[in-house]
Amino acid sequence: MNTERRLFFNEIGEVVVKKRRGSKRMSIRVNPEGEVKITIPFFVSFIDAEKFLISRVNWIKESRIKMEEKRPPKIIYTPDNIPPSFHHEFIITRTKRAACFRKFSSGLCEIFIPETESVSSDKSQKYISESILATLRKEANIILINRTRELARMHKFSIKEIRVKNMKSRWGSCSSKNNINLNLHLMRLPKHLSDYVILHELVHTVHHNHSQKFWDKLDTYVEDSKTLAKELKKWSTN
Length: 238
What we know:
Elements: E1 4-9, E2 13-19, E3 27-30, E4 36-40, H1 46-55, H2 57-70, E5 89-95, E6 101-105, E7 108-114, H3 122-155, E8 162-165, E9 172-174, E10 180-183, H4 191-203, H5 212-218, H6 225-232
């Protein structure tokens, strides 16, 4: 049985419609990138899902406008405004080579931009952004993974794999098999918040939901977990 279909509408573009076992009603989600996804129960037809979507077109448009208004202005990186990571400074160097490249050394990520290319061009900005992400990933694969194992040992949690990912809308996740995914952008957070996220996912190895038992358990490891959850919402995941 086909459980997923992609629809296209002139007014809103592509929409992913997915049948989900256990769903009791149709729901629409617009993610921070403006992508639209509809979840429907198995007994609902794709035709009915399309009708439902048409009835919600104005809501989708309004949701995208609100998200765009909340989105921080686009940063144009220059040699003077790249914020350092926890363990690396960034510098931009011009090169006679035709392609961008980067080099890591102790505490430094040097980004080379061709002399024939403007630093503010889309190509250069894309490469600078990729270099920042590569640096965060390099640090996160050591620091976040080691910290997660440290907290797991300290509080006697049983975990399997730990992976660092560039996630768009989540700080972390825990699978039913106790595999933990962490957003590499945790490296940008204050330590008390990154620890909160890690402990949040560790507690999910015991309670795979957000029941009161989950929050009570989490509060035994952090002070006032729900206050920290609100503080975390002030930070962007990318």
